[in-house]
Amino acid sequence: MGDDARRNVIMTAAIAGLGGLLFGYDTGIIASAMLFIRSDLGLSSFEQGLVVAAVPVGAAFGALLAGPLSDKRGRRLVIIVSAFVFIAGALVSAAADSVAVLTISRIVIGVAIGFASATAPVYISEVAPPEIRGRLVTMFQLAVTIGILVAYVVGLAFEPNGEWRWMLGLGALPALLLAGGMIKMPRSPRWLLMTGQDYEARAVLAKIRGPNQHEIDVEVDEIKAQVGEEPGRWSELGTPLMRAALTVGLGLAILQQVTGINTVIYYAPTIVEYTGIDSASSAILASIGVGIVNVGMTVVALRLLDRAGRRPLLLIGVAGMTFSLFTLGLAFELGDEDTVTSVVAIGSLMLFVASFAISLGPIFWLLNSEIYPLRTRSKAAALGTFTNWIFNFAVSLTFLLLIDALGQSGAFWLYAAIGGVTFVFCQRLVPETKDKHLEEIEAEFARRAGVAA
Ligand code: BGC
Asked: Which protein residues are within 6 Å of ligand 1, measured from CB?
């Protein structure tokens, strides 16, 4: 692969990865904005819940819709549409003066996020050469974490005057970047071949793999061997091969959320306050710290995934998450409100986020985009994304209730126990996909299911 081709494919992945910014920014900004929206628009607790929940629920259904849409119209177009829908939603939500308008515009934002999160990783994995696919798909997760960090900082900047409309409206900027960039990017060569556009697919491959005709022929043959006449139907997700792959994909979609990452992302300041620190600035600093560790360790993952492989990082990360959840629970159980407790609790929080960022964070999105056969890939990945958003919503909704029911230590120990289950799941079921062509990964699941690929 020549330098030009390499540069082209990295650029393509980086632009599509911006899809993650939409998701990260909204995740990070809503808590700060809500502090002011609730008094400005006079929202009840129920209405606040509605406004927050609108995005994950919209995203779950947007993801489902994105599956068939990106088979019919192509991955690239769905990403471009997601950016425009997001811009519309962000601007209307910034101008909203009633709960109804705010809720509807946030459902629209959610649908856009669902489109982007179901389609961008699939698009990237379809343009990427196997040896750097881990790194390229992880650009999506990197954008998610950068989006969260930027939102924390924007939240801080607009907080003194309570300018929530700016906080929400600024979300349109990354979407504008995404739209502007994606319009210039090529369509997925795998989608082009699946829809019979061989000539166009070869032209794209020449751009992102280099001019070597023989290499292009080999890749085209390999892809064509796996493709039927047209994209598969939803019912094909029930075949033995797909069941084997979906067990891994949906399992990771659920486990990524039920190990509690978003309790930390959404509630870091609250958790820090539980340790007895009651200055608002320390609590906010904790959020920024969490944001920085999340970005920094995602960069580490990006550099290691294609060298060390997916499985070692996954197992080390999940072990670290389980250990730090346990020590977080311990800090709450044993400690009085003293310095040692605070140090252990904050140290555990940071270790937890770092461990997530090298494992379940990027690796769920990566595997969700690479373990399904081309015929059913976009629908299966959409189902994985849908599942991830539903569980994201459920965990965020139940976290404070769980603390009421089990106490702080009990709640974190429950997440630690789920971390243990996650470790066993990954150890037993998650295959190594490093350096493999997407078509070889399909063959691995066919072997597991005892059928011919
Ligand atoms: C998860 C999000 C989470 C984020 C944190 C993503 O991979 O899907 O739910 O907020 O990572 O970095």
From this structure: 27, 141, 144-145, 148, 256, 261-262, 265, 294, 361, 388, 392
